């Protein structure tokens, strides 16, 4: 699929519309109280600050001509007081808003994380991890300021504008219209660049996402890179992605600069126009020098909020391109979820039935077709066959990691599509090919699926899979810290730890996908003994390429040609002299 690549831009599946912003309001609404307080503080602070030009006008026109020193001192003190009050209020407001901003992104990030936890395997199959990560981390951070301070500032600036307009019209109507004259030109500039600017910011989010995806992929694959000495070539790829990002960023910033640049110039033109109009009409009755001074101060003050609004507009356009991605992720359908009124799967015996089941990862390309088999509770089944035949797919479907395209999969007669996922998966012990190790202690890792397991239970599980011995050899034994992916451990050690983790849950159905492929022959033999004991009474599906490890299974199914090509016990399949026989004898000769 196209998006499953670092250098392919993600198309937006749902283009931005105002509904997205309304959804953002859901998060903002939760912060209503502190936001209203912050808003009131700002309004008072702005109102106080606005009285300064009036004081100036009074001082120039009345106090200075009357040479009243004590009045002059009083008004100077008042001006200082307005500054102090504004600063105090602004400081309290900024503290409140920092908190609000963080609370908003906390909520969005939590929702994203919760949703990502529920998204099915298919979602992760289809896109690079870097593109997912950047949404949760960078994009969410980028929208925090707009959704908190941005909203308040927007309202405040509008109010500020109204206040200034009222003050300004109270002082002089004619000059006020001169100040307002620049507005239509400004609106024209915005209209002209609006769409281009939005597209430019979408390109920025795309290119940063691509760069992030490649960075993530490169870090994960660093060992292979160094083995194949691909460093130079990878640098080239990264430089290309980084250059693309820089270029689109420059273009987006060009539009961003354009707006404040227009505002700045318009403000200068308007101020000059005030002097010009004032000069023509200046007269003792018409306009006093104090009025001109106050009006030019208002002109600067009037255009300042417009400049601020234009900066807010820039941030808004920028944030919209991130919000689109965030909500797109939140809207990603959880295609594998409980159906309405799903039943809880009762404690199972372990019978597994595939009833004419067909499955495709991508519609139209069936991996398995009309598959039917019935496994009795307690039976051990081996799935063998060529690479890519569909063995892992079969076991992934039992736990409903994907939805079947047609037919049914039943456990003890219950359709897996109709029972609660948690009740289904919690009764399975699944060990995937990727023995993922989480950061934490070995004890934490074994206990991962059963948090209430006692230390004794953890140790017993480790003993069963012959992991106890090597774990105790570490200085801190079970409390040894391992890092993410378990890079301090050997591949075989990782497998044994994840094996113990699977067993700890004491599942009725056990699925082992290449569980012992990296374990040495001696440990495997020991493990096999423990395992045979453990498998008794449980249904188990074991995928293995080394046939010697599965020949004792009750049933061996040879997966090929979109189905089960051969099925029977080892002896039966050998007697058939078919594909299993050929594979087995070939492996025996190699050994
Ligand atoms: N997430 C996926 N999206 C699309 N196709 C997939 C996906 N996973 C597997 N396939 C395809 O489905 C087929 C069966 O894959 P599967 O992993 O089940 O094979 P397997 O028999 O377990 O192989 P192996 O022995 O190599 O583990 C393969 O052709 C593979 O390319």
TrEMBL record:
<feature type="domain" description="ABC transmembrane type-1">
    <location>
        <begin position="36"/>
        <end position="318"/>
    </location>
</feature>
<dbReference type="GO" id="GO:0016887">
    <property type="term" value="F:ATP hydrolysis activity"/>
</dbReference>
<feature type="transmembrane region" description="Helical">
    <location>
        <begin position="151"/>
        <end position="169"/>
    </location>
</feature>
<dbReference type="InterPro" id="IPR011527">
    <property type="entry name" value="ABC1_TM_dom"/>
</dbReference>
<dbReference type="InterPro" id="IPR039421">
    <property type="entry name" value="Type_1_exporter"/>
</dbReference>
<keyword id="KW-0547">Nucleotide-binding</keyword>
<feature type="transmembrane region" description="Helical">
    <location>
        <begin position="72"/>
        <end position="92"/>
    </location>
</feature>
<dbReference type="Pfam" id="PF00664">
    <property type="entry name" value="ABC_membrane"/>
</dbReference>
<keyword id="KW-1133">Transmembrane helix</keyword>
<dbReference type="InterPro" id="IPR003593">
    <property type="entry name" value="AAA+_ATPase"/>
</dbReference>
<feature type="transmembrane region" description="Helical">
    <location>
        <begin position="175"/>
        <end position="193"/>
    </location>
</feature>
<keyword id="KW-0067">ATP-binding</keyword>
<dbReference type="GO" id="GO:0015421">
    <property type="term" value="F:ABC-type oligopeptide transporter activity"/>
</dbReference>
<dbReference type="InterPro" id="IPR003439">
    <property type="entry name" value="ABC_transporter-like_ATP-bd"/>
</dbReference>
<feature type="transmembrane region" description="Helical">
    <location>
        <begin position="36"/>
        <end position="60"/>
    </location>
</feature>
<dbReference type="InterPro" id="IPR036640">
    <property type="entry name" value="ABC1_TM_sf"/>
</dbReference>
<keyword id="KW-0472">Membrane</keyword>
<keyword id="KW-0812">Transmembrane</keyword>
<feature type="domain" description="ABC transporter">
    <location>
        <begin position="352"/>
        <end position="586"/>
    </location>
</feature>
<protein>
    <submittedName>
        <fullName>ATP-binding cassette subfamily B protein</fullName>
    </submittedName>
</protein>
<dbReference type="GO" id="GO:0005886">
    <property type="term" value="C:plasma membrane"/>
</dbReference>
<feature type="transmembrane region" description="Helical">
    <location>
        <begin position="254"/>
        <end position="281"/>
    </location>
</feature>
<keyword id="KW-0813">Transport</keyword>
<dbReference type="Pfam" id="PF00005">
    <property type="entry name" value="ABC_tran"/>
</dbReference>
<dbReference type="InterPro" id="IPR027417">
    <property type="entry name" value="P-loop_NTPase"/>
</dbReference>
<dbReference type="InterPro" id="IPR017871">
    <property type="entry name" value="ABC_transporter-like_CS"/>
</dbReference>
<dbReference type="GO" id="GO:0005524">
    <property type="term" value="F:ATP binding"/>
</dbReference>
């Amino acid at each position: 699929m196209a998006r499953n690549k670092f250098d392919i831009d993600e198309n937006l599946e749902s283009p931005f519309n105002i509904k997205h912003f309304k959804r953002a309001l859901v998060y903002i609404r939760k912060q209503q109280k502190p936001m209203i307080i912050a808003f009131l503080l700002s309004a008072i602070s702005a109102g106080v600050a606005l009285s300064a030009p009036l004081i100036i006008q009074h001082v120039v026109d009345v106090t200075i001509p009357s040479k009243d020193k004590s009045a002059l001192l009083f008004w100077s003190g008042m001006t200082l007081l307005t500054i102090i009050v504004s600063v105090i209020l602004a400081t309290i407001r900024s503290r409140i808003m920092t908190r609000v901003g963080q609370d908003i992104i906390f909520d969005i990030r939590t929702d994203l994380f919760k949703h990502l936890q529920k998204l099915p395997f298919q979602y992760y199959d289809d896109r690079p991890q870097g593109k997912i990560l950047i949404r949760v981390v960078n994009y969410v951070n980028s929208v925090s300021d707009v959704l908190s301070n941005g909203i308040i500032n927007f309202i405040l600036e509008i109010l500020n504008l109204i206040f200034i307009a009222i003050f300004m019209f109270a002082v002089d109507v004619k000059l006020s219209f001169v100040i307002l004259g620049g507005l239509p030109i400004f609106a024209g500039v915005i209209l002209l660049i609006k769409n281009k600017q939005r597209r430019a910011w979408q390109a920025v989010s795309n290119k940063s996402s691509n760069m992030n995806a490649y960075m993530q992929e490169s870090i994960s694959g660093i060992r292979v890179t160094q083995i194949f000495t691909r460093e130079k070539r990878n640098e080239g790829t990264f430089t290309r992605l980084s250059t693309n990002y820089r270029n689109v960023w420059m273009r987006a910033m060009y539009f961003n600069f354009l707006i404040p640049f227009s505002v700045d110039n318009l403000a200068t033109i308007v101020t000059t126009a005030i002097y010009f109009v004032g000069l023509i009409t200046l007269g003792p009755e018409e306009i006093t020098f104090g009025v001109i001074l106050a009006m030019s101060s208002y002109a600067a003050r009037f255009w300042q909020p417009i400049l601020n609004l234009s900066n807010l507009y820039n941030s808004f356009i920028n944030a919209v391109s991130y919000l689109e991605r965030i909500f797109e992720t939140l809207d990603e359908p959880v295609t594998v979820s409980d159906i309405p009124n799903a039943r809880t799967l009762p404690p199972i015996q372990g019978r597994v039935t595939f009833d004419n089941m067909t499955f495709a990862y991508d519609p139209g390309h069936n991996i398995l077709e009309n598959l039917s088999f019935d496994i009795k509770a307690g039976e051990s089944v081996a799935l063998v066959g060529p690479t890519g035949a569909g063995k892992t797919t079969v076991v992934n479907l039992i736990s409903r990691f994907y939805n079947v395209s047609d037919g049914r999969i039943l456990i003890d007669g219950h359709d897996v599509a109709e029972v609660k996922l948690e009740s289904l998966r919690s009764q399975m012990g699944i060990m995937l090919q990727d023995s993922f190790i989480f950061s934490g202690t070995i004890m934490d890792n074994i206990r991962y699926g059963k948090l209430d397991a006692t230390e004794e239970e953890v140790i017993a599980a480790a003993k069963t899979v012959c992991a106890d011995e090597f774990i105790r050899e570490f200085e801190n034994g079970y409390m040894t810290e391992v890092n993410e992916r378990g890079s301090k451990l050997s591949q075989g050690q990782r497998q044994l730890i994840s094996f113990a983790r699977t067993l700890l849950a004491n599942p009725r159905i056990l699925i082992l996908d290449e569980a012992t492929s990296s374990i040495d022959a001696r440990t495997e033999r020991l493990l096999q003994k423990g395992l045979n004991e453990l498998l008794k009474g449980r249904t188990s599906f074991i995928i293995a390429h080394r046939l010697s490890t599965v020949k004792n299974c009750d049933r061996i199914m040879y997966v090929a040609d979109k189905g089960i090509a051969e099925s029977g016990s080892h002896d039966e399949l050998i007697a058939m002299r078919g594909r299993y026989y050929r594979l087995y004898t070939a492996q025996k000769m190699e050994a």
